[in-house]
Design goal:
There is one protein chain. This protein has 43 residues and is mainly α. It has 2 helices and no strands. The longest helix is centred in the last third of the chain and has 15 residues.
């Protein structure tokens, strides 16, 4: 299946930067990071 052809849209990667830790350290900062990722994914 060729998804970009099916949806007629280019795909790009939206992800957190590489890190030795899977979390950012605080719940509030994690929520802000997640909101930014979702906004970037749907823009």
């Amino acid at each position: 299946m060729n998804l970009p052809a099916l949806i007629d849209r280019q795909l790009t990667v939206v992800s957190r930067p590489a890190s030795s830790s899977p979390a950012v350290g605080s719940h509030h900062r994690s929520e802000l990071e997640q909101q930014a990722l979702v906004a970037q994914a749907f823009s």
